[in-house]
Amino acid sequence: MKIGIPKEIKNNESRVGMTPAGVFELTKKNHTVFIQTTAGEGSGFFDKDYQEVGAIILATIEEVYSKSEMIVKVKEPIALEYPLIKENQIVFTYFHFASSEPLTKAMIKSKSVCIAYETVEDEEGTLPLLTPMSEVAGRMAVQQGAKYLEKPIKGRGILLGGVPGVAPGKVLILGAGVVGVQAAKMAAGLGAHVTIMDINMKRLRYVNDVLPNHVTTAFSSEYSIRQLIKTHDLIIGGVLVKGGKAPKLITRDMLKEMRPGTVLVDVAVDQGGCFETTKATTHEDPTYIINDVVHYCVANMPGAVPYTSTIALTNVTLAYILKLANLGWEKACESDLSLSKGLNIVKGEIMYKELEGIFG
Description:
By secondary structure, the protein is α/β, with parallel strands linked by helices.
């Protein structure tokens, strides 16, 4: 199969769809891999690294799309790429269709085969291709939140871990999934006081067992959220609805209950966000302030640490890419139920039920 890896063109997105190690596994199986020149440089991989493992370097994104039967990316195509996608072409990437009507309509119109990393689901019900980026984003949420609590950036002026004689900051985490647990680990490691909330008692019991004693668990309800936001300095939203829009757990009116300089980090922004006041931002302009509350809602957080993120992503996507390349998408999805759940839009038809009717 002819596989194309274009350079990511989303704002400040430095990841690349595959490492040289991943390309090597494809070329030794006699697949042809096209990669756009400098596509890997942001992640620390150079054209010569890809050429040494058999990739063909192409000068433009247009050439990559036109020559390839399958496109392997990191982020969803943006408007400039819509007309480049061909009928029957496989596009394997993070799509997050629920957060973008224009993208959904464009992919329907393209009649391509859209397989979304974020809805590939294994037998245990986990999302193996979303997990590594959720791990990165969960940890980064605390790293970024701690920075934006600083006074020059309009935060409360809190050092998250405190110092002797001064109490540590308080972190509230909504959702005890992969993002939430990783965020709790990081915040606890800094010495912050951490509360993690969920409606799944099984997850809360797991958190209680594996995390330190200064991480407390709470059952999530609107009432309990309203109480806790009054006293917490950093609030992280990490709620996931598979393939669908995230629920709005913090409404606009709740901002008035928070102390000035409180920081909100919405890791669910790719799925529409779990704060009513969420709007997607970029690494170039990551924050905005509403009612004296700092919002950090960058839609590609792991793109800020591309070396780590690209390797972590290729580790989990490669087996599926090989299967698609070796068998073609139809046989690959017939033989692998997990991969078949990644089918979101196929030749103009919505295949993933959570997307049906989401935009009317």
